[in-house]
Amino acid sequence: MEKMLIHGRKPLQGTVKISGSKNSSLPILAATLLTRGMCTIHRVPDLSDIHYMLTILSTLGCEVERASGTVRIRAENIRSETPYDIVRKMRASVCILGPLLGRQGEATVSLPGGCVIGDRPIDLHLRGFEALGATIRVQEGNIKALAPHLKGSTICLRGKQGTTVLGTDNIMMAAVLADGITVIDGAAEEPEVLDLANFLIKMGARIEGAGTARIVIEGVKELQGAEHEVIPDRIEAGTFLVAAAIFGQGITIRQTLPEHLQSVTAALKEAGFRIDITADAITVNNNGRRRPIMIHTQPHPGFPTDMQAQMCALLSTTEGLSKITDNIFPQRFMHLAELKRMGADIELEGATASIRGVSSLGAAPVMASDLRASAALVLAGLQADGITEINRVYHIDRGYESIDEKLNSLGAHIERIKSSSAKNRLGS
Known about the structure:
By secondary structure, this protein is of the alpha/beta class. It has two domains: about 1-20 and about 230-425, Enolpyruvate transferase domain (UDP-n-acetylglucosamine1-carboxyvinyl-transferase, Chain, Alpha-beta prism), CATH 3.65.10.10; about 20-230, Enolpyruvate transferase domain (UDP-n-acetylglucosamine1-carboxyvinyl-transferase, Chain, Alpha-beta prism), CATH 3.65.10.10. Helices cover about 30% and strands about 25% of the residues. Strands 22-24-1-25 form a four-stranded mixed sheet. Strands 2-14-16-15 form a four-stranded mixed sheet. The protein has a four-stranded mixed sheet with strand order 4-5-3-13, covered by helices on one side. Helix 1 runs parallel beside helix 7 (about 190-200) and helix 10 (about 310-315) packs parallel to helix 12. The longest helix is centred in the middle third of the chain and has 14 residues, at about 235-245. The chain is globular and about 65 Å long. The chain starts with a strand and ends with a helix.
């Protein structure tokens, strides 16, 4: 198993290019199941989650080719059941339910795994499928869905913590081949949902309102193959913006879409950083004293829950009292214990973290608990005195393409080594 060693307090400067979006790529790859035609997807990031999805598609019978960020998929003859051993590794694998149900009229998918960040039920997905006419059974750890003829319906996807992105994706993919018109009220408004809709439209789907809270889908008889380029990953971009704020001397994030990051750049401006924005780039300049801020995560266009952990790392060394409340995943604070091991002064009450900035963090062995928590620990290590050892870095490889190499290109000193090597290096 690999670890990362972060040699702290190395000034960062320069330019970094953002990869394609993980959260767009996964449902778009799943959507290729909806057609027998060839689909070509560009700017697919090289991540373990992408590898798992392509393995699932191959297991279902798809022909998959991958080279230099481009994936070609032909789902001419497919099965409708997926094995637990693959699905358990990634929660987003549940998004194959919609396209399988839409095309095959049936699907059997193991209950998904993925990050341990609290309760993330898929009951809204299943309720939506039932509204389209599917019969759902959950038995022996599997979801079994049967619907010889899907019919359009009006579906509300508002849950206790707001909307569901994967649920919106799933219902939209099932509905494009259903008879009649489907209306999704309370749809997720995230850019990744719009990206999936744009791909489906290229395949011949009829969709209006994607990117808003109300999506209208008119079912069609069949879809054809299509070519598509995935949007930039706004969470990777946001993570590098925070890295620039933490220990940067002027860093530009390129090949991104600033309109997808308005809540993040607004928070950094409030915290005292100068942000310069062009059509496809954002520059962060550390130009003075940081200020404490209050953040509440919300569905898009609010502040994303996927950036909460990274902001905890930044605010841990920002003088004064900051507070972050996670309204999406109230239990998503497992990284706080690891930040406290590094000297952070943080108290958690319910879904709110109160952070009193300290003058500096100190290196310590820490454990990544999920994807975004691991990113926060990398950011904390960049500003810590000494060498921070991060265990379980497989979490970060699920959602960040070569994050260590990209940070090293900006001036960081990050090593990726085997566990036994880490012990020897730190003990020498």
